[in-house]
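User: Sequence in, structure out. Go.
Assistant: Echoing your sequence, followed by the structure tokens.
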Amino acid sequence: MDVMPLLLLVAGSAVVAGAARRTPVPAPLLLVAAGLAVSYVPGVPDYTLDPEVVLPLLLPPLLYTSAADSSYLDLRAQLRPVALLSVGYALFATFVVGWAAYLIVPGLPLTAALVLGAVVAPPDAVAATAVARRVGLPSRITTILQGESLLNDATAITAYKVALAAAVGEGATWSGGVEEFLVAAVGGVGVGLVLMAPLHWLRTHLKEALLQNTLSLLIPFVAYGVAEQVHASGVLAVVTVALYLGHRAWEVDFATRLQEEAVWKMVAFVLESAVFALIGLQLPVVLRGLEEYAGAAAAWYAIAVFLVVVATRFVWVYPATFMPRLLRRVREREENPTWRGAMVTAWAGMRGVVSLAIAFSIPLTVHGGGPFPQRNLILFLTFTTVIGTLVVQGLTLPPLIRLLKFPGHDAQAATLAEANAQAQASRVAEQRLEELLTDERNALPPPLADRLRSVLERRRNAVWERLGQTNPVTGESVDDTYRRLSRDMIGAERAVFVRLRDGRYIDDEMLRTLLRRLDLEEAAAYREAA
């Protein structure tokens, strides 16, 4: 097996994603553009999206890291709008886009058109939420977009299976489709509920951070695989487990949390970068199957389907946002939505790699041996819809958010809330410390006891000191000055340790121990000032 194409894909996508951080262009768009450009370079191998790889190997970890970083409480508070988008809109888009494609493309059977509708139904909100955080959208909108992206894949994949069964001649019925959808949804959540407590127990009882993080990397694949084995939704199983484990992450050892955060950030960065680059690299594969269609006709079909996809989201979002307000219970329990929030939610409907992966899983033939009707055109329309939404909506979303002038993030209020929380925690910790020190079993020399008190005092005061203070000479904030002085001081210590190692006064093992201690001190200083 030639691993060089895979290494080039990972390395190249990481370089492009890193470069994107220095530009105003969102990383997903730059990665897709780079993939499109590289696909024309002579000698570049075909990077065909294999659904047997993308869905079970790439989708679970991406879902897991996104769900684990989400707020279970926020998602529960926004459950109604999230459900309307992730279930209601996904099914609505399947039928509307499918019916429109049936009318637009001559000779396309309705069942095959519904397959296309299901394929392009789920928005991939990775890019949207990245833009939302970067530009500073209100947390409610960000939560809704993120919640939609976590759950809509399950709806679209189930709808696709039902439409595909009808298209290939397996005699699918509407009642059978509804039953399959309910079984997949309830079964996926059920598998997640069954697995989450044992997995959390195992995480908290493993004594080594290395073993705990190894388990963390396996969890999304275990949840997905178990659910798929019982014909339930692997997507919902992964999301259910990840939300629970993320909500209970405070019960895990601190070393595990520190390692896990770093590991999953790296995994998410590599996978997301490679996934968006893969989208662009699909161009030669898609175009090769389009030779039987006239270029002008295929382009017209692509533009028409893209416009229908965009319009369908607006048609769903605005009524789904404001009509529930007619119910008194909804008005009492939820804050009043705005037309600006609905506008951003409707425009943030970029499609992604899941749509392409599902499209590539369409079989070549139907029952009886005949070819799947217009499979190559469905692949092409999926590809153009994904690229169109990423480019058109992805490029215009940041200026749209700025144009609508959402209220910015109140850093002063956030810091004040943090300071109040830290003050309450510090008071309780101080009382606990004094209780412990009265026990003769916890006797400490006065300097060490004073050190514990001073660390607690420093942590309590650090947040208050950040409220609006700047260095009058350099213009630095208190954060920056504190961080700079800490790093310079620790850097001086680090240089001495290295010099002692080079002079053979200490060995390399002791050097690593001393450097790790300084690394933790530097991390603590960074956190206190952050």
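User: And one key feature?
Assistant: The mean pLDDT is 83.
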